[in-house]
Amino acid sequence: MNSKQPTEPTTSAPWGNTLYFLARAASRGAACLVLDKVLSTALSKLLPHLSTSTTESSSNNIAKSLLLGLAIGIPMTLASTITSFVVQKIFPMKQSKNMDKLMDILLKDPIAAAIEAPLQEECLFRGLVQPVSDRLFSIVLPGQSTLAKNVSLVFSSCAFGAIHLSNDGNLAQPICATFTGLYLGILKNKYGLGCSIGAHVTNNTILCLLMRTLFVHDKN
Predict the structure, then answer these.
(1) Residue 32 belongs to a domain
(2) Range of the domain at 78
């Protein structure tokens, strides 16, 4: 008997693939949010002095902040694009295997880049790293809550930039990611995790559409 392993759908109908990728993104996103809540709850039990609420208190608040983030993501993307343009003038981005791999993901699996990556990164950095570092720096800097929050914001943004480092010598991507992390961290502090997720999704979606359009234009 010739048994085949299950693979991603190869149907020729574009809606079939789109629905599959959207369902996958939704399930992974939900898993990230649940994991974020479980870890933050466990942290508050194990280390009460570091306890912090990493998600909004109700699904209604999350939905509102998510929609707000999707809208705010448009001007944020403009700010990120301007920042990227300036940074790349100073640190030109080189063509490399990592850049080719990124472009390959954008072309073959844009939903992973536009939806899944923002959900995962926001739950990790704005959902866990930033709130925990808020508390840590508030202990290191007692009586200076504003300074502690700002230092935490910079720290979590630099950590976000650091995961975008690569071994090909490109500095533009991690620097741009650090600035994007700052924008997202400010939104998280002001409006909640849902807002930073929404803004990140909008940012990545616009960038995916632009890069795919430019790639197709260059190919023609």
Answers:
(1) no
(2) 59-219
Q: What is the pLDDT of residues 5-51, one digit of tens each?
A: 444 444 444 445 556 555 665 666 666 666 666 666 666 666 565 54
Instruction: Note the pLDDT of residue 50.
Output: 54
How many domains does the chain fold into? 1
Instruction: Quote the tokens at residue 78.
Output: 């403009």
Residue 110 exposed, middle or buried by CB count within 10 Å (0-12, 13-18, 19+): middle
51 assigned to some structural domain: no
The distance in angstroms from the start CA to the end CA of the chain is 45
**Which residues in the chain show pLDDT less than 50?**
1-15, 51, 53-55, 57
In whole angstroms, give the CA distance from residue 166 to residue 171.
Answer: 8
Q: How far is 138 from 132, CA to CA, in rounded Å?
A: 10
Q: What is the C-alpha separation between 14 and 50, in angstroms, rounded?
A: 47
Instruction: Check the CA dihedral 179-185-188-190 and report its sign.
Output: negative
**The two three-digit tokens of residue 19, written as one number:** 């629905």
Q: For residue 20, tell me if it sits in a domain.
A: no
